[in-house]
Design goal:
With 274 residues, the chain is mainly beta. The protein is built from three helices and 13 strands; from the N terminus they run H-E-E-E-E-E-E-H-E-E-E-E-E-E-H-E. The chain is 9% helix and 41% strand. The longest helix has 11 residues.
């Protein structure tokens, strides 16, 4: 995930060994990870963090994290394990599920996540959960979790006037938004292809590099989604700077944590994914 650090203010030529040393010197333990190896977090600014994970003999992994301003309710469709990590899981589900009584009245089922149906209240979603150890041994399909997520750009295919969407029909969809979770061996996990309007742009400052970080708030059904983009990618691809009212399209990795909806048990065990 090191190349995603561009999204939070680390230039492509930044010395990653120096970054890792900084995290080890000034970072603090990351909750729900460990106890073996190194699992550290270094706050940068306003909810933005740099994280370092290293297990036994593996190489250290540096990656971005952001504590979003918004909480999303997600009905769980599937939880998948992450290779080589006992602390993470891929969550697939649908946001803002309607009440069970409405499910029956509207003949809407959680298993219909491929085409949510006209009565569904939210949208499909997938995210990389960093605190999967909080989950119990079993979690029924359809259980609603509250999660906190943010996206980091893998690629940006379009950034410009709202009317320039690659698929004009998206303009007539709720909030003018398109979100499609990616899957399969050829696609990275926890990623979504999106086409959405930009509600606002906030400029933050990376405390280590001094570089500006672009935080975009996107107009998603239910609640806004917050994402980060690389200014160096914009420059390489000759794309304009983001502005409110513009449209952005591309593939984003979504990373998050659980903030509510866990069953009340005396002792939680890690959920069996698959």
């Amino acid at each position: 995930m090191e190349f995603l650090l561009e999204c939070i203010g680390f230039p492509p030529d930044w010395d990653l060994a120096r970054v890792a040393a900084e995290v080890r010197q000034h970072g603090e333990s990351t909750a729900w990870r460990g106890p073996t190896g190194e699992h550290l977090r270094l706050p940068l600014t306003g909810g933005l963090e740099l994280r370092l994970d290293q297990d036994e003999e593996s190489e250290p992994s540096l990656w971005p994290f952001y504590s979003s301003n918004y909480r999303r309710r997600v009905a769980v469709n599937k939880l998948e394990s992450v290779p080589d990590s006992t602390y993470d899981a891929i969550l697939r589900g649908v946001t803002d599920p309607i009440a069970p009584i409405e499910h029956e009245a509207n003949d809407w089922r959680l298993s219909d996540v491929e085409g949510l149906g006209r009565h569904a209240a939210g949208h499909q979603i997938t995210t990389y959960l960093t605190d999967a150890r909080r989950l119990p041994h079993s979690l029924p399909k359809g259980h609603v979790l509250a999660i906190n997520i943010a996206g980091f750009a893998l690629s940006i295919d379009y950034l410009g006037p709202n009317e320039g969407a690659s698929d004009p029909e998206v303009l007539d969809s709720p909030h003018g938004a398109y979100l499609l979770p990616l899957g399969g061996a050829d696609n990275p996990a926890a990623c979504m292809e999106i086409s959405m309007r930009i509600r606002s742009v906030t400029h933050m400052r990376n405390a280590l590099t001094g570089n500006t970080v672009h935080r975009l708030e996107l107009d998603a059904p239910g609640a806004p989604l917050e994402v980060f983009i690389s200014p160096w990618q914009l420059e390489r691809d000759d794309l304009p700077h983001p502005k409110p009212g513009a449209r952005i399209e591309g593939v984003f990795l979504f990373v998050g944590r659980i903030v509510g909806g866990l069953p009340r048990t005396k002792q939680r065990r890690r959920v069996a994914f698959g």
